[in-house]
Amino acid sequence: MKLYSNLSKISFLKKSYTNKFFFVAFLGIHIPLIGLIITLIFNKNAFSTQAILLFTLGFTLLATAVTLYVIKKIIVPINLASLSLAQYRKYRTVPNLPLRFKDEAGKLLYNVQKTISDNETYLNQKQDLVSLLTHDIKNFVSQPKGLALLLLDENDITEIRDIAKLIVASSDNQLEFLESFIHLLREEEALSAVEVESNTVNFTEIILDIERQLAVKLQEKNIILQKNIIQTNVKLFADEVLLSSVVFNLLHNAVKFSQPNSAISVDVGLNKEHLEIKIRDQGIGFTDKQKGQLFSKFSKISRKGTSREDSVGIGLYLCLQIVTKFSGYLYANSDGANKGAVFTVGFRIDK
Q1: Please, which residues have CB within 8 angstroms of residue 37's CB and are 6 or more apart in sequence?
Q2: Is the CB of residue 226 less than 8 Å from the CB of residue 263?
Q3: Which of 192, 255, 263, 278 could form a disulfide with 267 if both were Cys (CB 3.0 to 4.6 A apart)?
Q4: Which of 1-10, 92-101, 159-168 has the highest mean pLDDT?
């Protein structure tokens, strides 16, 4: 930054990054001519044509090297801005960029610093909101439930007990919604910080681990999980933890909405430049009208599972956000209500 800073002290270069380049280029172009003139003036010996050509070539090479070196120094603020953005995206490190420069590069540094600082303020405020929801609002929602439970313990009047039960159920629904909202905020923040990098993923281990996590639910409904894993170790542009959460969520939904004594199949294979996972169930399915709302945030079509399992409608939304982050795809198909569903997710392969 020292050379760039020194050039910025020159009045006609202070406010123009372009002029700095023109100035350096002008000097670089004229170094061979200046060097040749000085050599001819101060050296009294006669020079042959060949010597003059060699001198010119030498000064031209020197001028080229000096010009490239100076240009490399001038673009330091651009590199600094790029590095600061990369560091913030990867490690959430807030930079302390110089803001005194008035040219285009200086404005870039200012805008990068201001944007990162404003975003950090927003994220901190968002985190404060999460904390507020976690502590205070949950307490407010819990108070009516506590009073309703007290009524149930101390009152035998049927009408009052029915109303108290409605209050308890309503409070539970509100608490569940708040928990989902808090979870959504945290997941979106975590997702924004993830760097898109290539990782080797073992799908056999992932599917088996998810099967272990869902073992109780599978057993309760007597559902068979059929696995057809053609590709196991694959190098993908995806985070393994987030990828696993997508597959878990899709399989969890398949179990939730499947009829007892049915089967769910998982197929893992290649589809051109993507690793593709297909999850088929024999559950409640969905209509064409419902399909358009499946991946919406807090989807209005969130339904109870076949064993009355709760659903708040953010799982598929988060899955889509994760898949989109890694340039993949996620879509769903069904022949209609009670005709099962097929969810297909693909992640980009690193060749």
Answers
A1: none
A2: yes
A3: 278
A4: 92-101
Please, what is the end-to-end C-alpha distance for the chain in angstroms? 39
Q: What is the dihedral of CA 102, 104, 109, 115, to 10 degrees?
A: 110
Residue 146 has pLDDT above 70, yes or no: yes
Report DSSP state, residue 283. B
* Cα–Cα distance measured from residue 313 to residue 290, given in angstroms and rounded to the nearest whole number: 12
Which tokens belong to 110?
């200012």
Give the DSSP H/E element, type plus range, for residue 199. Answer: strand 198-202
236 bridge partner residues: 199, 349
User: Tokens for 247?
Assistant: 């597959």
In the numeric block, the tokens 């997941």 are attached to: 187
Return the SS3 of 37. Answer: helix
What is the reported pLDDT for 13? Answer: 85
